[in-house]
């Protein structure tokens, strides 16, 4: 059995995996969901929130373990798990990208979003005057991020979304190599009804690296909320 480390995306928290976790545990797997800095469960000031801080938070959890892990990243967290794998490829059994940013060396989440002609989220965000953080209006969350999620789940999620998301992690350029990151097995879970990370952008990113398995879900950005059983099966 494997130990799954689950890393949430922007504005989210460890809570976003709460329906997926029991599905993995039913199969006998151990699961740890991490709250990144700036999430409701790990609040920090905006200037202190960086991609390096995200990577260190995840790496510290894995360093404390005496076994390999399956490292899972959702959306923006794809950039995080890639860099964790670059630092400690020997500790990663497999990387799983859930509608996540699987970037080339030197690329950034923001640059990938900017070149996605079908991505609807970036224009809907409200940025601080100094560009240090962004806010996601409820209307945008409902129509773009949660458009295929049931109302009960939306009502449960909205109060736990961070009000402000630091932008530095979006702008930070990923540093990965063929020798280290490239050596780790990868699974990509492609979401075909995604309005934030469009299927076309996902296909571009999958082509960046050797991906062992691609699973397809008829989901928006949040299969962890809309179809947790199917998501868990795709992660096995």
Question: What can you see in these coordinates?
Answer:
The protein is an alpha/beta fold and 236 residues long. The protein has ten helices and nine strands. The N and C termini lie close together (10 Å).
Helix content: 25-40%
Task: Name the strands of the widest sheet in spatial order.
Answer: 2-1-3-4-8-9
**Structural Rg:** 16 Å
**Principal-axis shape:** globular
Structural class designation: alpha/beta
Q: How would you sum up the major sheet?
A: 6 strands, parallel
What's the CATH superfamily, by name? Alpha/Beta hydrolase fold, catalytic domain
Query: What proportion of the residues form beta strands (DSSP E)?
Result: 15-25%
Number of helices: 10
| CATH architecture tag | 3-Layer(aba) Sandwich
Brief overview:
With 236 residues, the chain is an alpha/beta fold. The protein has ten helices and nine strands.
Protein topology:
Elements: E1 3-7, H1 21-26, E2 30-34, H2 51-63, E3 69-74, H3 77-87, E4 92-98, H4 109-114, E5 126-127, E6 133-135, H5 138-145, H6 151-157, E7 165-166, H7 168-171, E8 186-191, H8 199-206, E9 213-217, H9 223-226, H10 228-235
Parallel strand pairs: 1-2, 1-3, 3-4, 4-8, 8-9
Antiparallel strand pairs: 5-6, 6-7
Helix pairs in contact: 2-3
Please tag this protein with its features.
236 residues, six-stranded parallel sheet, three-stranded antiparallel sheet, alpha/beta, globular
């Amino acid at each position: 059995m494997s130990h799954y480390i689950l890393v949430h995306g922007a504005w989210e928290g460890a809570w976003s995996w709460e329906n997926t976790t029991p599905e993995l545990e039913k199969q006998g797997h151990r699961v740890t969901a991490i709250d990144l800095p700036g999430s409701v469960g790990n609040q920090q000031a905006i200037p202190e929130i960086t991609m390096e801080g995200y990577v260190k938070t995840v790496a510290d959890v894995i360093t404390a373990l005496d076994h390999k892990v399956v490292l899972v990243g959702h959306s923006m967290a794809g950039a995080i798990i890639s860099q964790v794998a670059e630092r400690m490829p020997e500790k990663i059994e497999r990387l799983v990208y859930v509608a996540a940013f699987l970037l080339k060396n030197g690329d950034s989440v923001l640059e990938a979003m900017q070149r996605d002609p079908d991505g609807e989220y970036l224009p809907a965000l409200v940025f601080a005057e100094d560009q240090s953080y962004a806010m996601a209006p409820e209307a945008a969350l409902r129509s773009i991020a949660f458009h295929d999620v049931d109302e009960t789940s939306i009502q449960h999620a909205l109060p736990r979304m961070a009000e402000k998301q630091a932008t530095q992690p979006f702008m930070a350029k990923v540093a990965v190599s063929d020798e280290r990151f490239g050596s780790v097995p990868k699974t990509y879970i492609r979401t075909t009804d995604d309005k934030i990370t469009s299927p076309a952008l996902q296909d571009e990113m999958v082509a960046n690296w050797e991906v062992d398995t691609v699973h397809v879900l008829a989901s928006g950005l949040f299969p962890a909320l809309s179809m947790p059983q199917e998501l868990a099966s795709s992660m096995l």
